[in-house]
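Bump. Still looking for fructose-2,6-bisphosphate 2-phosphatase structure tokens.
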Amino acid sequence: PRSIWISRHGESMFNVTGQIGGDANLSPRGQRYAEELPRLVRNSAGDTPLTVWTSTLKRTAQTAHHLPYEKLSWKALDELDSGVCDGLTYAEIEQRYPSDFAARDADKYNYRYLGGESYRDVVIRLEPIIMELERSENILIVTHQAVLRCIYAYFMGSSQEQSPWMEVPLHTLIRLTPRAYKTEEERMYADV
Ligand code: F6P
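Sorry for the wait, here they are.
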């Protein structure tokens, strides 16, 4: 049966400083993940030829750089747009936009950043991606935390509203194999 592999980009400089959004480069540790990823994928996929989908942001292209497969970048895979909060840390958001910070905490799925997106918005913009995935063979998606949470929830049969709480950590390759009644999952961790 066919599988879908998903991975977040390697640690970025914004991950190091705790800033959200942006278009930062990989950190040295994230760079090591990018170098390790071809081995991790090969251990799981063997000789199966994959197609790699990334977002349009640098950190996903940098993470996919060493993968010896055909690559395609999708704007629809860009990270949840955090609008006016782009580039801030959670502490800065709480300080500058306290009522927004509380509103997000109260309803993370529906909360839309000022000038940006909600998880619900991301689920909607991912519809074409999901459709394309459903009719494709052996795709490896390298993208962002919020986006992968939505894709993961979809394949695991979790409700869309649960998307913001899916566990999709850095430096982990996840293999999803849809079966008749449920999707099988395997996680591979890179020690970088
Ligand atoms: O911090 C990394 C990141 O991908 C941010 O760019 C993004 O805003 C955030 O995670 C999404 O996670 P959460 O919805 O939990 O804030």
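The CA atoms of residues 18 and 91 lie 9 Å apart.

Edit: fixed formatting.
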